[in-house]
Amino acid sequence: EGVNALNMAQLAIGAIHTLRETFRDDDMIRVSSIITKCGEMVNTVPAEVEMQLMVRAPTLEAMLESSKKVDRALKAGALALGGKVEIRNEIGYLPLHSSRELTALYRDNIKSYLGLGDDAFISEYASAGSTDLGDISHIMPCMHIWTGGISGALHASDFKVTDREAAFIMPAKMMAMTVIDLLFDRAQGAKTVLDAYRPVFTKDEYIAFMKDHTGTDTFDGSAI
User: What is the pTM of this model?
Assistant: First the structure.
């Protein structure tokens, strides 16, 4: 009947591309996709296509809103050809929600140890990258430290460590000094960090959030 699953997938990917101009620059949305399975033979109409997509953003709100748009694009591809799409949504790593107070302790230690000024730091860095620390940072104070001593691009073949002292030793020393600051004087530093922190979730709320945004949505375009 010519209901081509590959064509549906291509339409969906095209629809996602047209959505990109609806993404706010400040939200730094990243939508990545690959086709992992497509048909059985080149001279037959593909009956099934499997895809993997990833939606990333620096905030929960932007991530969830963009994910809804991507779901609509997938359904649009199915609707156009009268096919079906099954969307399995799973929450991956959450964006970083770093503690400014905790990060400031680390920064101050670097400044005093190496005699650096404020211009040597980027204290607030927004990124669409993701890590499991993002999940933890929504429940308790966390910091994600970037350091030097490397060359090349992250996750690329040209990445390599060029200065072991800067990449490994110095960050470890600064972490130790930060721990001392947190525990000194009956842990007054740690109490200050905790008092200033506003968690996004309790542990139970986090678990409920993950469950609420994990599930399967089936759309039948042939029924419309």
Answer: 0.81
Please give the Cα distance from 201 to 213 (Å, whole number).
Answer: 15
> What is the DSSP secondary-structure string of 145-163?
----SEES-TTSTT-EES-
CA atoms within 13 A on the CB side of 186: 0
* Amino acid, single-letter form, for residue 135: D
The dihedral over CA atoms of 90, 132, 210, 34, expressed in degrees to the nearest 10, equals -10
Residue 126 has pLDDT above 80, yes or no: no
d(CA 123, CA 143): 11
Following DSSP, what letter does each residue of 162-177 receive, concatenated? S-HIIIIIHHHHHHHH
- The CA distance from 177 to 6, in Å, is 56
**What pLDDT was estimated at residue 124?**
67
Q: 61-95: string of b/e by CB count within 10 Å (b at 16+)? A: ebbebbbebbbebbbbbbbebebbbebeeebeebb
pLDDT in tens, 67-115: 999 999 999 999 999 999 999 999 989 988 889 999 999 999 989 988 8
Q: Distance between CA atoms of 61 and 120, rounded to whole angstroms?
A: 31
Q: Tell me if residue 179 falls in helix, strand or coil.
A: helix
Q: How far apart are CA 129 and CA 26, in angstroms?
A: 14
